Every structure is written in structure tokens, then in C-alpha cells.
Amino acid sequence: MKLKVSQMGLLLSVALILSYIESVIPFNFGIPGMKLGLPNLAVVLTLYLFGWKEALLINLTRILLSGFMFGNMAGILFSLAGAAVSFLSMLAARKTGIFDLCGVSICGGVTHNIGQILIAVYVVRTAGIMYYLPVLLIAGVITGALNGMIAMRTEPYLKKMQRRA
Amino acid sequence: MTENDKRKWRAGFVLALLIITFSLIFMAVLYQRQDGQRVVILIDGKATAEYDLSVNRTVTIRTADGGENVLTIQDGSCYMKEANCPDHICVREGHIHRKGQSIICLPHHLVIQIEGGKEAEVDAVVR
Q1: Chain A residues lying within 8 Å of B86, measured CB to CB
Q2: pTM for this one?
Q3: Which of A106, A124, A133 sits opposite B106 (nearest CB)?
Q4: Which CATH code, of 3.40.50.720, 1.10.150.530, 3.30.70.920, 1.10.1760.20, is assigned to A2-27+34-164?
Q5: Fold adopted by B38-119
């Protein structure tokens, strides 16, 4: 139990550091809702190392903490919307068993961006901004695939350490 | 890598290709649109002002929550010159001139949208 708490703490701190790095690198190219999605790396890893409950916990706490540290209230609401859609679809993608970690991460990246643009449509009450969707989808595939590849390479080592401890 | 691993890897690859192809087609359709004639200012989804794209001018848009966005219209296209929002994403969006293109300032609930001429609502009339 103690071991699990400390491992979860490490994963959360990884998520927070990645959030910080993400807030420093401007990657949006002037497109609202576009993000590198680096913290998702920690979430995907938790999903595969522990399970969906633990991943949900990491996801919620990292959004709240990073929102209060590097963002604002509006940013938290946006992140929550994107993360909720992305988390659910990652769970579904994993459940089907068709995809590996990388495929699941791609699903997460793409749906995160879809969730954010939907919230943006709701906020400005103008459907015309769906114009950004194709760019966001491609960005989601690329960032999701990169995250997935990193997670796939790291996961076996973490699993080994988890077993040894 | 086992056979099963390979199959799962391929599934992810196919998914990525499908999404990218779909997006590229979607983009190609959007980029074939013609140049617009008017620029419409929408705050909270309501059109508050409308300007002719062929007249060069700079306007300051004020929103209810104290937002100020400076929009410049020049040679048939327009861009956000300045804004007092925290993220400045709208300024980085650059120039727009095609029908349907838009600049968004989320913190101010503001959308700048390019539209066609007034008569362009109907494509053709059959007599």
C-alpha cells in the first residue's frame, strides 16, 4: 500500500512537471484548444501500470494542481472537458483490445482536441469555428502517437521495477 | 515482437492514417472556398458589427467583460492586431480572407468571421 502511494506520487509529479514544460512551450500556432498533451503520458502510463481508477485520480489531481499553479479557472474547466472526453475514449479504446498503448494514446490525443473545440463552440456560441477541426485532428494524431511511443518504450522498465519492489 | 503485438501496432497505424486522410480531405474542401467580402464581429454568438473587407480600416472591439481587441482590415483580408486577453492566441492566428474562416478570442467570447456578399445566400435561382 505504502509502495503504491509513493509510486502514484511519482507519477503525479511527472504529470505536473510535464504540465509545466507544456505551459512553457508555445505549441498552439494560434489555434485554440491545441496542446502537446505531454501530461497525458503520465496518465496513460498509470492506466497501464495500475488501472483506470488510479489513472482517473492522477488525471483529476494533475488538472486541478497544474491549473492553480500555471493557469486559471477558465483553463481548468477547458482542461477538464478535454480530459474527460479523452479519458473515456482511451478507456473504451483499451477495452476493445484492438490497439496497443500507442493506439490508445492516439485516441486520447485526438478526442482531447475534439473535446476542447466543442467547449470552445459552446463558449463563443458560434459553430463556424469547427473550421479548426481538421488541423486539430492531425495535431492530435501526431502528439498522441509521439506520447504513445514514449510510453511504450518506458512501460516495460517501470513494470519491471514495480514487480521487483 | 509477437504476431499479436504487430497486429495491434498496425491497428493504431491504420487509425492514424484514416484520421489524417479524413482531415486532409476536409482541409482541401475548406481551402477551395472563395475570398469573402464582409467581416462579421460576433460576441457571445450575436453579430454586433459588420465591415466591408475591401475598405482598409482598424477598429477596436470592446466586449462586456472589459476585453479590447484591435482588428485591422487591409487589402481584402483582416487580422487581430492587438488584444488584452491573457493568451494572445487570436493575435497569433494571423490573416484570414476566405469565406468561413474565423479568428477566435476565447477569453472574450469573441469571433471574427469572414462571409460572402449579401446576395450570396442563394447559389442559384431556378425560374
Answers
A1: 72
A2: 0.82
A3: A124
A4: 1.10.1760.20
A5: mini-chromosome maintenance (MCM) complex, domain 2 (2.60.320)
| pLDDT (average), residues B53-61 | 88
Q: Where are the domains positioned within chain B? A: 1-32, 38-119
Q: Which three cell numbers stand for residue A110?
A: 485526438
| C-alpha distances out from residue A160 to A13, A43, A156, Å | 20, 18, 6
Spell out which residues of chain B touch residue A137, defining contact as CB-CB under 8 Å.
19-20, 22-23
Tell me which chain B residues have a C-beta less than 8 angstroms from the C-beta of A106.
12, 15-16, 19
Given this model, what pLDDT does residue A145 score? 93
Q: What is the nearest CA distance from A104 to chain B, expressed in angstroms? A: 8
